[in-house]
């Protein structure tokens, strides 16, 4: 099967992720949208890896997944710290680098 | 014959999950829609003959990361989010940007993949075995693997420190 369809699906998923980041003000949903964008890119990487018959694309996906796991752990810890500080997860209220 | 059918089914599942994540007003519902998207993407990996990545996707994303998200959402006890339908200029600009970006990406895909599929037809594609991936990971990419290990350790320590202390 042609990988063009996989790439188109990946583009649509990525756009939905971008819309989530732009439209939502809840920091956790913004995080989820970032994860969705990472998934979309991973999908296109696997499709290309399959298309070129080369395993390196899948290795890159493996590393992206581990970086995403690290990012989620640190990001959610920051969310908890922010919530403890100001009892809100609305990104519009966090406009100072200094609490 | 079977592959386009499976692709269509899982693509619809992934898109419905992503849209549900975007539209739903409760953060818990958003996270659960996202689990559906990730499971569908895992199935798409398997249709692309990348079975190992499909399993890792289910374990790491749909399992570990989403459980972490749900745990934090329920810990914080968040309120409902506003509807997306209510119009504001910022949202209008966001929709416009999204449509422009989608058009750009699809145009690139439509124009450029013609060249790529020529090579695809000539290469005899077969399922990537775990053995092949393991060989590549532990020989050519061994140093990167070590760095990822250090990164995960640093992330663990950082997360514990950030969540433990009073963050001033």
Note down, in words, how this protein is organized:
The complex is a heterodimer of chains A (99) and B (168). Chain A is mainly alpha-helical and 99 residues long. Chain A has helices at residues 4-23, 27-52, 56-86. In chain A, helix 1 packs antiparallel against helix 2 (27-52) and helix 2 (27-52) packs antiparallel against helix 3. The longest helix of chain A is centred in the C-terminal third of the chain and has 31 residues, at 56-86. Chain B is mainly alpha-helical and 168 residues long. Chain B has six helices and no strands. Chain B has helices at 2-23, 27-47, 51-76, 89-122, 130-138, 142-164. In chain B, helix 2 runs antiparallel to helix 3 (51-76). The chains are: A mainly alpha (99), B mainly alpha (168). At the A-B interface, helix 1, helix 2 and helix 3 of A face helix 1, helix 2, helix 3, helix 4 and helix 5 of B.
Residue runs with pLDDT of under 50 for 5 or more positions of chain B = 120-124
The CATH class of chain A turns out to be: Mainly Alpha
**What is the element string of chain B, with H for helices and E for strands?**
HHHHHH
Poorly predicted segments of chain A: none
Query: Largest sheet of chain A, described in full?
Result: none
How would the global form of chain A be characterised? elongated
* DSSP strand count of chain B: 0
Structure classification of chain A = mainly alpha
What's the oligomerization state?
A: heterodimer
Summed over residues and divided by their number, the pLDDT of chain B gives a mean of: 85
Using the coordinates shown, work out and report the CATH topology of chain A. Answer: Helix Hairpins
List the helices and strands and how they pair.
The complex is a heterodimer of chains A (99) and B (168).
Chain A: H1 4-23, H2 27-52, H3 56-86
Helix pairs in contact in A: 1-2, 2-3
Chain B: H1 2-23, H2 27-47, H3 51-76, H4 89-122, H5 130-138, H6 142-164
